[in-house]
Amino acid sequence: MRVLLVEDDPVVAQVLEMVLTRAGHQVHLARDFPTAKARLAEPWDAIVLDLNLPGGFGLDLLRHLRQDLGRATPVIILSGLKQERTILESMRLGAQDYLTKPFSPQELVLRLERYVAKG
Amino acid sequence: MELLAWLLYGYQVLVLYYFAVLNFLYATFALFGLRMVARYARELSELSLKDLLEREAYLPVSILVPTYNEEKTIAASVRSFLALRYPEFEVIVVCDGPRDRTLEVLKEAFRLVRVDWVFKRALPTKPIRGVYRSLTYPNLLVVDKENGGKADALNAGLNFARYPLFCGVDADSLLDPEALLRASRLFLEDERVLAVGGTIRPLNGARVREGIVEELRLPRGFLEKMQIIEYARAFFMGRAGWSAMNALLIISGAFGLFRRSEAMKVGGYRTDTVGEDMELVVRLHRRAREEGRDYRVLYTPDPICYTEVPADWATLRRQRNRWHRGLWEVLWLHRAMLFNPRYGRLGLLAMPYFFLFEALGPVVEVLGYLLLPVFYLLGVFNAEFALLFLLLALGYGVLLSQLAIGMETLLLKRYPRLRDRVALLFLSLLEVLGYRQVLALERFIATFQVLRKRGQWGEMRRKGLGG
Amino acid sequence: MWRRGERLYALLVFLVVALEALALGGLVWVFSGRLLGAFDYPMARLHLLQALFLTALALVVLGAYVLVYHAYTALKEARDKALYERYLSAFTEALFSGTKPPPPPWPEPALEALLHLRETLKGEMGEKVARWLRRGRPPWAFRLKSRWASRPERLEALEALGLARLPETLEAILPYLEHRDPVLRLAAARAAARAVQGKGVLHLGEALLKAELPKGALLEVLLLLEDRAEPVVALFLEKGGRGEVWAALEAIGRLHLHGLAEGVLPFLEAEDPEVQAAALRALARLGYPPVGYEDVVLGLLRREEEFLRVHAARLLPLLPQNLARRALWEALKDPSFYVRRAAAEALASLDLELLRKAGEAHPDPYGRAMAAQVLLEVAWNS
Questions:
Q1: What is the pTM of this model?
Q2: In Å, how far from its chain's centre is CA B254?
Q3: Is pLDDT larger for residue B222 or for residue B387?
Q4: Chain B residues 137-176 within an 8 A CB cutoff of chain C
């Protein structure tokens, strides 16, 4: 499974890379908004998306993916933001799930695999 | 003849006193600035910033962007403002009757649609021609109005602003993504705070990618390099000191955060001066003191805003001329505060300092140079002495610049290359050999223009919108 | 945004400045004296040369220090970064493969890596990281208790403990809530809010009541407590001063503490309008109808303070429908722009038809305009 990680925090990125690689998936990392936006054009099986990115807000990437590119790729949002408003907006834009930090890496992988299997 | 010689010598001694007091003050500022950085750096942790962002403990901000003819850069600028890291804010772009395609560029880039927007006309401004909202960015508002100057544009923006804090920026300011977080938390932690200014740094030479400053590099131009040193001095040594004394009179128009209610109470920006940014701050101080309120006007030493500085002499001189005229205008408008104990440290320290040293400084300096041939003609010229004294004065100037460069070395986002550091240190030597004198002359001319009221500060074109 | 190590630099600057002041002072003295005929030219010249020499010396020393500092910090930071990344990989590897991490003692960058991991992970892995942290014997709690630690060291220790979130460290943090330095009090409150667990929450609450923090800071602390906040919020409502009550009311709304909603109602009649406004906001956020206090809310609509009228208008949709409709219709006539706006927005969520009617037929022209405006916005946002 090809997974795109959009995350600027190096610790979170490393943890995610490790747990996903160990689960047998191919992981690619984008550390900021412009890189992520460019890489969205490639085919992905799943995306893990952070919201507070250098150069832009993650939800704009989600909007770009769903509306401009028209893809239904499963997206899990992983963010430190806890406001209800943000969570609702993410769901409305078509994210499959919203996890807050601190998080459990195994839980994230399980959920991701489940969404991919469903779709 | 003896008397004349004695008088002239007396004048020299006076200049020495002036110089000594000035340098003593600079030294005090240097120490204050260092102290503030040392304390402040520890007080604000990255962790607490992150917490502020992730929870709802913040005050929403309206960013006011006055713009004139900026068709080439406005889209990128507005996009960078919209990308700031802050939970809730709006961007209000006020097009001050531009003659180029600024408004059209905005309409295309942000899919603007005209709306009939009801707003409170609390501050008088030139007529509004149209209000536009963006289909893609719900927190962007664009106001098109008749030309009235930067202050007028800001006032128009204030009429539309709906949040408790507002942030006045220049259209070409590049803000640090955490600029709003760092500055606004000061309002949250202390209810007395009325206004916050941040550090401005020259953007020239930096490597920028999609609105993020990735690395700072020394630019090629000599003038630009000089300004890097100047800005470091002005901010790290000047403003920190005044802020520590709660007598900060200047918050740069490139980035300043204010409580909207307070600015509205004093009537917004004045449109009849080129120094509108300083004038608002002085008026805020004045009103608060007159009302006997406990208040704060703060400076945050964290570098928050980057701006392109002039790279050629003509633009640079025009800018400095305007700044100096603005300074004189503000001092004149608030001359009642000068040496007035009713205004505490402002009246007895800050205003006199700006009057005697900042405003009159170039006059003293240029007169000093001009009097040298006079002394020579009168036969009271001692070449060796004059040279030594000149060297000393210049030496102090270099010392101050080096202190400022030293402060900059403490920053995390400093000029990273060692050779750039060496270059900066040597350039501070060059600064006092010509650059400084040319600008002193320009400010000297500005003083006389103000005296003769020749500079037309009402003229729209030089309102600082175009640069 | 700033590095450490300014103390030496500050000392150097102070020395330089003092020397220069001395030189300048000497010059002023000699020159003034010369003016009065007390000194002759060679004396003045000598002082001038001395001052010049000192300045040149200062320049050289300062310049040299700056360069050395720059080079040293650049090297040190590169080294620390390399260490950090090495340890981060090692720890992450150990976490996922279940092997042992590299043995302590660990250098500072390693501890930093552990703190970041602790901040990122929860559950079983988070606990593992906590255990490693304890094993690493970090110096923070010790530094807090020590008499000789400097202020920056204490602040760093507090922040580290806040990241570490080890409940047993609370006893080292709590005394700082009574420190005379407000910055340390605030840092301690933040750290404690993150670290505290279980019973400790009540101790923290009691300590906060005495800490004299500004209300914005109190709110931040409550928000940091997240799902542990309820006992402290209840304590604040019961025993707190103005700032604590305000923060508690705000927190109830933002954290959705429905269990405490009923306790908010009496504060609608508080003396302090800020507290009343906070109560209104909390109820609005919770969606909790002010049962039994309807006339109080309606009374607030007639108060002089504009912000009270605004928040009261926003709460009206939670009142019985007919009461709300009438009150909002009236509020559209309010002399304040912001109150009219709040009333129109509230009416939009309550009864869109009525808002439409207001836009056409409301007697007050400003009310009509505002209703029409909000209708436009509603259409816009959908």
A1: 0.85
A2: 7
A3: B222
A4: 138
